[in-house]
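Design request, tokens follow.
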């Protein structure tokens, strides 16, 4: 759904500067997760492959920040070290070794070193306060740590704290519903595990965190997870880092009333960053599942997301360069001012827009400085720097709002995109304000007709937009083939539809085609898109010749590009038709 935002040129400059300064290049390949487009997308030529590869690299370097992991971020065998043993015994603890002291139910660690924690603490705290900024490793080896009035694990000061989960052990950290001695200005501490400095979690054991007061795990600096099984339930945010949350590997299950994983630093040029390099995720959230004030990249991993608001939200940018992402529930699936998809397999189901390129959320009053993502007043519209770039990978969108929505422009040079857009006319399967340059890849987008857009006229890869005189039933096959019988598309939209756009490397200018409806196919279907097999039994809708880059069709044949309300839409090819025509009525052709 289009968001009408205040246009400020200074904000555009700031946004571009933030992206340029905050990000650097990182090679990223994950071809095992790639899903290709059936018979509709044949192998590219060597020249096309080289062009796509160059585009992918250029796009990725703009939005992917290189994340470095230190040697001590990885789990190492601590048994040979001179470790201090902390044996919890209900109301107190016994310490064997140096660097830790016990005062009632509070265990204080004041020196760098390795501390092995086991046993159960009913109502107490492990507090780390190392003035020389040394590294503290807490090895949780069958530990249960609870507090009814504060953070059970609190890092006041340390160069870095490493929580290592001992192999074969299960560990539990839980807090109460109210805290005592909370700082009035900062509201801290506010998490079951709270660190004011860098925090790393590693090891192959299991950690259960119950954040009954507010958050589950919080670092006021950088938070890295390199392995382990984490199960986190939190009243508000599950995992939060100020400057960085980076996950290299592990198994994470997060159920949060707020965000599942979040960064909080919103200082311009220093915004917090989320990096997902691997691991498996099961994220359930009341707000955004992944929420970064700055950039957010996914290079690998298997993510399953059920979000009360956005599935993935980046205040500056989102880059998907690998992995498998399944957003099964969201308000908007993926949102950021700049989104780049270069690899991986991504599936989005949304009650509003599927992929939304926008500098903010909601409508703005004149002179207001709203907007989420730490970019107040950032510009949207045809002249903005906002952009969706697709250079590879696989993307499926099932949206009740706009399918692909850019408050700016869209560019696609590779990959496969399948859009099941809205049935209602107030939104469109494709919706953009600037241009949509299609130079490669495969795109099919079905939806309502009232706001239907095609790609821009300056695209180099042909496309066609078919508008039907009345709604077509969900599941009704659409089949497009060349006059010589070569298949271009067999697709079964998941919802009722009245328009369909397709752009494919197999569409050729000046070639003749036939569009069919109904029938059956023996091919295998993924998200309604058929691969291989034989199509038969359909009814011919229209014969036509692809005489221009963008062809507009109705049941009677080729029509002129529609003009009307909406953005400039790329000088004709993308211009929208009449907003909200009566259901079943075809928008007028100009």
């Amino acid at each position: 759904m289009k968001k009408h935002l205040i246009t400020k040129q200074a904000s555009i400059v700031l946004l571009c500067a933030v992206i340029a300064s905050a990000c650097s290049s990182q090679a990223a390949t994950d071809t095992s997760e790639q899903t290709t487009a059936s018979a509709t997308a044949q192998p590219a030529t060597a020249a096309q492959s080289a062009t796509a590869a160059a585009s992918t690299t250029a796009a990725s370097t703009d939005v992917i920040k290189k994340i470095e992991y230190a040697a001590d971020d990885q789990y190492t065998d601590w048994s040979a070290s001179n470790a201090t043993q902390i044996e919890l015994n209900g109301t107190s603890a016994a310490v064997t070794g140096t660097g830790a002291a016990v005062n009632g139910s509070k265990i204080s660690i004041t020196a760098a070193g390795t501390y092995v924690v086991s046993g159960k603490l009913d109502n107490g705290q492990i507090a780390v306060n190392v003035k020389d900024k040394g590294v503290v490793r807490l090895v949780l080896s069958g530990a249960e740590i609870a507090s009814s009035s504060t953070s059970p694990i609190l890092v006041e000061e340390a160069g870095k704290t490493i929580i290592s989960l001992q192999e074969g052990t299960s560990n539990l950290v839980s807090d109460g519903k109210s805290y005592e001695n909370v700082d009035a200005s900062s509201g801290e501490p506010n998490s079951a595990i709270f660190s004011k400095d860098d925090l790393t979690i590693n090891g192959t054991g299991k950690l259960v965190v119950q954040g009954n007061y507010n958050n589950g795990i919080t670092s006021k600096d950088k938070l890295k997870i390199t392995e382990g099984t984490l199960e986190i339930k939190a009243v508000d945010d599950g995992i939060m880092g100020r400057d960085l949350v980076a996950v290299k590997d592990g198994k994470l299950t997060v159920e949060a009333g707020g965000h599942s994983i979040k960064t909080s630093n919103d200082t311009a040029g220093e915004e917090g960053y989320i990096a997902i390099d691997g691991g498996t995720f099961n994220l359930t959230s009341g707000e955004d599942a992944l929420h970064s004030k700055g950039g957010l990249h996914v290079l690998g991993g298997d993510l399953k997301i059920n979000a009360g608001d956005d599935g993935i939200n980046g205040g500056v940018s989102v880059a998907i360069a690998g992995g498998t992402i399944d957003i099964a529930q969201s308000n908007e699936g993926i949102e950021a001012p700049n989104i780049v998809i270069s690899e991986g397999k991504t599936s989005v189901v949304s009650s509003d827009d599927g992929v939304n390129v926008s500098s903010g959320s909601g409508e703005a009053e004149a002179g207001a400085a709203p907007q989420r993502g730490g970019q107040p007043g950032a510009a949207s519209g045809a002249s903005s720097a906002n952009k969706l770039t697709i250079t590879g990978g696989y993307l499926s969108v099932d949206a009740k709002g706009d399918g692909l929505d850019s408050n700016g422009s869209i560019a696609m040079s590779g990959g496969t995109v399948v859009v099941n857009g809205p049935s209602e006319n107030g939104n469109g399967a494709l919706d953009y304000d600037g241009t949509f340059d299609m130079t490669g890849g495969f795109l099919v987008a079905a939806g309502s007709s009232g706001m239907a857009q095609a790609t821009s006229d300056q695209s180099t890869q042909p496309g066609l937009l078919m508008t039907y005189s009345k709604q077509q039933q969900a599941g009704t096959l659409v089949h497009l083939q060349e006059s010589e019988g070569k298949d271009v598309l067999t697709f079964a939209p998941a919802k009722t539809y009245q328009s369909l756009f397709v752009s494919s490397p197999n569409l050729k200018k000046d070639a003749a085609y036939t569009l069919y409806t109904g029938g059956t196919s023996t091919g295998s279907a993924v998200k309604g898109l058929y691969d291989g097999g034989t199509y038969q039994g359909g009814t011919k809708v229209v014969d036509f010749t692809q005489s221009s880059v963008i062809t507009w069709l109705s049941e009677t044949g080729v029509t002129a590009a529609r003009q009307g309300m909406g953005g400039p839409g790329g000088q004709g090819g993308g211009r929208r038709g009449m907003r909200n025509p009566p259901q079943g009525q075809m928008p007028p052709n100009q």
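Comment from the thread starter after seeing the answer: thanks! The helical segments are 9-22, 46-63.
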